């Protein structure tokens, strides 16, 4: 990897990536963790499945969204306990006020954005995202109208992921972090 290693200027804080599904949070998070000295990577979706013992899709189907959101908060509480991490969050994590507070107090929060058409294209194949299984570009736009202000409430940086490779986005984040 050719991103130069740099020290993270916010000692003791994690970096949390928030945004709609399909904005490359996990991919960019992995690039960042490989590029920043002593920072590990945590994907809350993967941690969720490890802690809960079933997939997000199964949890939605068997227990419903309310139970999923409660468990998602527990997963976030676990994730932020480990210092010096890049944390890729689920797209709806900001829906709970407690989660927004946890993220804002414990992390340097970066919102990754993308146009609804990009999100639609990126997410329609996976099937991992229960709320987007029948999504259209319009329904994604409607979902962002709800979530967008919540991301903005806690984010200290906002970066578009449209038409760019995640590696270049990670480089931009690193450059902007060093300018902070």
Key words describing this protein structure:
180 residues, alpha/beta, Rossmann fold, 14% strand
Describe the protein.
The chain is an alpha/beta fold and 180 residues long. It has one domain (14-169): P-loop containing nucleotide triphosphate hydrolases (Rossmann fold), CATH 3.40.50.300. 53% of the residues lie in helices and 14% in strands. The chain contains eight helices and five strands. The protein has helices at 25-35, 44-52, 56-63, 65-81, 97-106, 116-123, 137-154, 166-179; strands at residues 14-19, 40-43, 85-88, 107-113, 157-160. It has a five-stranded parallel sheet with strand order 2-3-1-4-5, sandwiched between helices. Helix 2 (44-52) packs across helix 4 (65-81) and helix 4 (65-81) runs parallel beside helix 5 (97-106). The longest helix has 18 residues, at 137-154. The model is unreliable at 1-5 (pLDDT under 50).
Structure summarized in a few sentences:
By secondary structure, the protein is α/β, with parallel strands linked by helices.
The level of helicity is 40-55%
* Biggest sheet architecture: 5 strands, parallel
User: Under CATH, the topology is which?
Assistant: Rossmann fold
Per CATH, the superfamily is P-loop containing nucleotide triphosphate hydrolases
Give me the strand/helix succession.
Answer: EHEHHHEHEHHEH
| Total of helices | 8
Taking all Cα atoms into account, the compactness measure Rg is 15 Å
Overall average pLDDT: 88
Strand arrangement across the biggest beta sheet: 2-3-1-4-5
**Large-scale geometry:** globular
In total, the number of domains comes to: 1
